[in-house]
Amino acid sequence: MLHLIVFSVFGLVCVAGAVNLLVQRHPIDSALSLVVVMGSLAVEYLLLGAEFVAAVQVIVYAGAIMVLFVFVIMLLNAGTEDRTKGSRVAMLFGIPGMLIGSVLVAWVLLEHSGTGRVAVGALPGPPKVIGWLLFHDFLLPFEVTSVLVLIAIMGAVVLASHPESVERGPTQQPKREG
Amino acid sequence: MVPLSYYLVLSGILFACGVTGFLIKRNIITIFMSIELMLNGVNLSFVAFAAQWHALSGQVFVFFVMVVAAAESAVGLAIIIAVYRTRETLNVDRINLLKL
After folding, report:
1. B36-88: per-residue pLDDT in tens?
2. What is the DSSP letter of A175?
3. Considering the domain boundaries, does residue B83 fall inside one?
4. Do B17 and A101 touch (CB under 8 A)?
């Protein structure tokens, strides 16, 4: 019973944050409601027993990625978004479509998904076990991931740097005499 | 004991909110945040199914999804900065030319 109450409270907070992300018109408000969604999702992971995933969710998602978002919003001085004709058409079809889609998915899941139930901490995922899995069964994907992150870092640096400074590069340095 | 379907419904609602944000938002940064919302919804269903089937690899997959999301957001935000530098707008309706 308590499990259901905690699940419902944080599930409602989660959905409220997601809806608030859609309603707000300033990107910084959307970013902060996304932080709320991610924090309450971490609690849902804890309820399922996934300790490692919950910790990574808070550190990587709510911490690193959202800081990056807020940083870019402030760097670009993003203001309130303006409504255009295209956005009104999208709203006219998008919101009813989303409602119909979610009701259908919820109906199918609630009516036809059998009687599977999940207890509190159903599958403990402590960091030790996850680490063992990562370095034994998933060693190759793990190493490929490190290459991916390296390429992403280089891509981000190249893309975000000033085009002039890339072209000038080392040639701009003062030439040695003689 | 909470039915597995409740977790899946929550995950579906989050995904639907992400899709809607992708459609109705006109700010490129908010569109990007909607993509993150969709990834979060999928992660929740990964963890719920992992608990249902007692397979820890589901949680490892969530870890990989998070790494890819971090890489994606780093590159994506760099692209947004580059676009803003050339167009001086964040509205996707005004970014309609491949070449200036």
Report:
1. 999 999 999 999 999 888 888 899 999 999 999 999 999 999 999 998 988 88
2. P
3. yes
4. no
- Pairing mode of beta strands A117-118, B2-3: antiparallel
CA atoms of B24 and B17, how far apart (whole Å): 10
Ordered alpha helix ranges (H), B4-89 = 4-24, 28-53, 57-87
User: Is B70 within 8 Å of A65 when comparing Cβ atoms?
Assistant: yes
Three-state secondary structure of A131-145: HHHHHHCCHHHHHHH
Residue at B100 is within a domain: no
Q: Report whether A12 contacts A51 (CB < 8 A).
A: no
Structure token pair of residue A84: 């255009």
Provide the whole-model pTM: 0.88
A36 interfaces chain B, CB cutoff of 8 Å? no
What is the value of ipTM here, to two decimals?
0.92
Of B3, B8, B59, the CB nearest to A53: B59
Shortest distance, CA A124 to any CA of chain B (angstroms): 8
Q: How many domains does chain B have?
A: 1
